Structures are given as C-alpha cells and as structure tokens.
Amino acid sequence: MGYTYAMSDLHGSLSQFRQMLSLIGFSGEDRLYLIGDVFDRKPDAMALLMDVMKRENVTLLLGNHEHMMIDYVEDRLGPLQKASWLDRSGGHYTLAGFQALSSWERGLVMGYLNTRCPVFLNRVRCGKRRFRLFHAGPPELAPANALPKEMTDRDSGRECEIDEEGKNRRLLEAAGLESLTLAELEKQEPLLREPLLKQVLWTRLDPGFLPQGETVFLYGHTPVFQYDPAYDDGAPARIWHDREERKFNLDCGAAPFRPDKTKKGRIGCLRLDDLSCYYV
C-alpha cells in the first residue's frame, strides 16, 4: 500500500513539482491530489498540466485559474474578463502553451479538464480520516438566491418557477455528490454551474469556519501568509491548519498574485496518512 498526498496552487512550478515528487519518493503505488491552480503566472503552466495528465495516480481538481482558462477557450468571458485573465492573472503563459499544442493535443487538454478533473471530492478516505477536497470553499455554502427564478422540472422536463426551498435542495443534492466534473454538472444541472463554481473555486473560506462531523477540509486558493496574519512572520511559508487539524490550507504561495520578496513562498505537500508536511 502506498501513501496519499495533496498539494495546491502550483501555478506552473514544474521543476519544483518534480523536486517534490523526488523528495517524497512518489511511486506508482502512491496517490496525489492537486487541489487546483496548476495554470498561470509561470511559463511552464501548460507543460505542468501535460506532465500531470500522463500520471494515472494523480488527480487534478479544478481551481479558479483552470476555470478562467476553460471559459476563455469556450468563449464564455467578456472582453474585460479576457484581458484580466491574460494580464492580471498571468493567463498569457497558459494561453501561449495551449496555442503551441497541436489541435489534437488541445482537444485532449479540454477533454481532460471538462471530464477528468472534479470540481470537488467529498469522500477521500485515508486511514481513519475522511477528507473533503475543494479549491476554495465547500459547495454546500453556494447561495440559492444566485439561481434563476425558473429551472427545469425533473419530472416534466419543463421550465417552471422553483421556490427557495427547491433551489436549496438542488444545490445541496449537487454538493452532496461524491464528486462532480464540469461535464457532469452541465448534463445534470447546467443552471447550477455559475453559483456552484463561484463558491467552490473563488470564495475564500473563513479560517474560523468549523466543518461538521469528523471530516477534514483540504483547500488552497489563498496563500497562507494572506490567510492568517500569524503566518506572515517572514519565515518560509508553511501549510496552515487550525488547532483541531480539521482544516488545512495548502497554498504556500509558490507563485503569489503579487510577487513580494519578503514573502518566502514555496510548494507544500501534505501526506494524508499521518499529516506530515514536506516543502520545496
């Protein structure tokens, strides 16, 4: 039996990713979860994804940067949103790598992102612990009032007005699934796409939020030195966790939004079996 690991927010850090795999002795018997944001901010963003796609024992969850790239390619973004992704979010690195691929390879990339990369994973078990993985926030907190007034009735197949209770039920049903990819979301509940993705990929989870039951939350999205003032102490970034070890923020700022030489960002890796941490 191998070990199970998790990392987040690599943002094109291909060489550091490979160094980390060497450090932990990653083998074919192990399992690795990348909790979003392999894209943007560094030239090797697309090369990193291509490396990940070749590894059968690595699962990539979608992050907000993958979300922006998918929406750009599928022409879901307006002009200002496109410019923001390319310039402000460092998407020009990802787009250049994508455009350098053959049309066949580009198809493989889009198929992989839409059908193989879950938006969340709710039931990852390792030993006696159960983990829930999502990039930014738990899906059940998506606001029902963000849904349209009319949705498709499952029995009749017709568009009809859905009350708040019905909207909440649809959201909670989707949020309670073991996992959900974009392709599955589009097929089952297309009108849930935007509110659910906004919650799971963009919302910043409050450090004081307490998960229900015994589940452990694993996420990223916000570099630890921005997430908790106590972690902004000039020391090399380290994986954040609460006192009860029920929440772990794995974003150690390998490629922060605003580069700052006073912030010592790096890649963090958590071994789920015993909660050991590794850094490159």
Which terms would index this structure?
280 residues, alpha/beta, six-stranded mixed beta sheet
Textual characterization of the structure:
The protein has 280 residues and is of the alpha/beta class. Helix content is 34%, strand content 19%. It contains ten helices and 13 strands. It has a six-stranded mixed beta sheet with strand order 8-4-5-9-11-10. It has a five-stranded mixed beta sheet with strand order 3-2-1-12-13, with no helix packed on it. A two-stranded antiparallel sheet has the order 6-7. Helix 4 packs across helix 5. The longest helix has 13 residues. The chain is globular and about 45 Å long. The mean pLDDT is 91.
Q: What layout of secondary structure does this protein have?
A:
Elements: E1 4-7, H1 14-23, E2 31-35, H2 45-53, E3 58-61, H3 64-73, H4 79-88, H5 91-99, H6 103-115, E4 118-126, E5 129-134, E6 150-152, E7 159-161, H7 164-175, E8 179-181, H8 182-188, H9 193-202, E9 216-219, H10 224-227, E10 240-241, E11 247-249, E12 268-271, E13 276-279
Parallel strand pairs: 1-2, 2-3, 5-9, 9-11
Antiparallel strand pairs: 1-12, 4-5, 4-8, 6-7, 10-11, 12-13
Tell me the number of helical segments per DSSP (H or I, 4 or more residues long).
Answer: 10
Strand arrangement within the widest β-sheet reads: 8-4-5-9-11-10
In what range is the share of β-strand residues? 15-25%
Average the pLDDT over all residues and give the rounded result.
Answer: 91
Shape: globular
Low-confidence regions: none
Element-by-element helix/strand order = EHEHEHHHHEEEEHEHHEHEEEE
Cα radius of gyration in angstroms: 19 Å
Helix content: 25-40%
Straight-line N-to-C gap:
25 Å
Structural class: alpha/beta
Largest sheet: 6 strands, mixed
The number of distinct β-strands equals 13
